Amino acid sequence: MRKYSRQFSAFIGQLLLICLVLHFSTTHATRRHVNFVIDYVNVSRLCHNKSIIAVNGKFPGPPVRVTEGDHIIFNVTNLVEHNVTIHWHGVLQVLTNWVDGPEYITQCPIQPGRSFVSEFQIVEQRGTLFWHAHIEWLRATVHGAIVIRPRHKPSYIPSIKPNHEHIIILGEWWIADVGDVLQDALDIGRGYDIPNAMTINGYPGALYKCSQHLTQRFRVTKGETYMLRLVNAALNFALYFAIANHTLTLVGADAEYTQPLETDVVMLAPGQTNDILITANQPEGNYYMACSVFNPNSNIANVPYPQIPATAVLTYSSSLASNISFSQLQLPSLPAFNDSLYVANFTQSLRGYYTMSIPQEVHYDFLYTLSYSFLPCPTCLSPPYPSQRITTSINNQTFVLPQISLLEAYYNHINGVYETDFPKKPPYEFNYTGIEERDISTSNLGTKVTMLEFGKTVQIVFQNTHSLGYDIHPIHLHGQNFFIIGEGFGNYNASLHAPSFNLRDPPFRNTIAVPSGGWAAIRFTTNNPGVWFMHCHFDLHSTWGMSTAFIVKNGQGKNETLPPPPANMPPC
């Protein structure tokens, strides 16, 4: 009886999601128009002037503020010389897979001089997400926050005044053109030139050259409570964030509520967002906020990173008019750059806050190894591996983007674009997290996907491997949020670890930071038909091939069936 009740609850949850789409679309939906113009803008950072690609002349781009249930009409006009796409990161896109945004997965890019209008709804989500370019590395400067107001909120989250909310976007800055940085890395088959600075809302802060006068200030009034909407928009770095002398209370992650978690420092992987409450309860004055890199690879020569934290200032209102003496400000205490134990304790302390049921029965059970690997490259001459280039893989498969969109190929039954035999487990077993010399080369390039029936439960255990060294991998799934039911260090052992899975109150997210030298387990229900990309949100790793896609088949009836494409889809 208990098993039946859980299955029935899962079915009701799927049905409720579809009904909510119909309900909002016919009764309560507010239509909101969002217009993006992508163009060049000149900016100055680190004593250098530079032209960047930005949205509506702003870097970071404009925040999009909506309410749960809103119907969005989104117009993008491309005025630059590059193809572009925009992905609404974390937005579920229920029955609107066509406008999800990843290039050659759900659409062809918007070509120079063209526009694209798309429509979708915000369904059963509330909190902070972000939008960004989803082609090459354009998202370095083409990104911005999404703020989703709830129709109803938990009682433990106080009502926040409209002026008591701050958006904080963590990112990176290169003096060089980011497109050139990417191309140089691909040409040599190795790593890339690291950014010259980390940033908070596009500015490096007072510890960097030519930056003190541009340091961002966030105003607070003593005794008041504020919501910080925190986004890690960095391309390739997980980041710590803290505010000197202030406690952070995390109440949301990836636009899903969490049980309140008090901490001094949060860690966000690229693609993750946090909703954080702070109370201005310190003596009047100025307080540094800072972000620094979490890099679990102890050998900095293997994975270099900017070692100066980005800073901004939390300013109490009585101090707003005064000049800041930066030399007298104290940085918040941040963990060591490679403190994997701190990060593990933080991520494993997160608990979800929701009414939905957690899938108990598993229909698809996958083990995915995340690895570095090599491919032949006659023009790559850099030591210590000449004539080879670094790639990444999932189960020894290195993903190759097709020339037309996967969704178009699937919907129109076009043969030869993709294969449906993505492996369910690695091709061979070994001591995944052990340090040993072995042949890690792979010739398994291709566009392989996994077909899934509608309404089923998928469990994936991501197993990190040592291969060329330890690193975390922030895996992002489009179109489906998932429960993070377990994680740990070492090799995953089903008989040992599965009994301790959290099936009561796990966090519900769209991006999981798979631990360095460890594993993480997720579950989700296939209640959204279409083609859904899954990839590492380190852009270098995704570029190298740590990606795949799921094709969720149609269910029964119109409300479980992917509609035809919009008439104005961009051509290839």
Structure description:
- This protein is mainly beta.
- Strand 14 and strand 15 (256-263) form a beta hairpin.
- Helices cover 11% and strands 36% of the residues.
- It is found in: Secreted, Extracellular space, Apoplast.
- It catalyses: 4 hydroquinone + O2 = 4 benzosemiquinone + 2 H2O.
- It holds the Pfam family Cu-oxidase.
Distance between the termini: 52 Å
> C-alpha Rg, in Å?
23 Å
How can the largest sheet be summarized? 6 strands, mixed
- As a percent range, the share of strand residues is 35-45%
Low-confidence stretches: 1-26
Number of strands: 32
Strand order of the largest sheet: 10-9-12-17-14-15
Helix share, percent: 10-25%
Number of helices: 6
What would you call the structural class? Answer: mainly beta
How much is the average pLDDT? 91
Shape verdict: globular
Protein name: Laccase
Catalytic activity: 4 hydroquinone + O2 = 4 benzosemiquinone + 2 H2O
Domain Plastocyanin-like: 39-152, 165-317, 422-555
Subcellular location: Secreted, Extracellular space, Apoplast
Notable characteristics:
6-stranded mixed β-sheet, disordered N terminus, 11% helix, secreted, apoplast
Overview in brief:
Its cofactor is Cu cation. With 572 residues, this protein is mainly beta.
Strand and helix map with partners:
Blueprint: H1 2-28, E1 31-45, E2 48-55, E3 64-67, E4 71-78, E5 86-89, E6 115-121, E7 127-133, E8 143-149, E9 165-173, H2 178-188, E10 197-200, E11 217-220, E12 225-232, E13 238-243, E14 248-253, E15 256-263, E16 266-268, E17 273-279, E18 286-294, E19 310-316, H3 340-348, E20 364-376, E21 388-394, E22 398-399, H4 406-411, E23 445-446, E24 449-452, E25 457-464, E26 473-477, E27 482-489, H5 494-497, E28 508-509, E29 511-514, E30 518-525, E31 530-536, H6 539-544, E32 547-552
Parallel strand pairs: 1-4, 3-8, 9-12, 11-19, 20-25, 22-23, 24-32
Antiparallel strand pairs: 1-2, 4-6, 5-7, 7-8, 9-10, 12-17, 13-16, 13-18, 14-15, 14-17, 18-19, 20-21, 25-30, 26-29, 26-31, 27-28, 27-30, 31-32
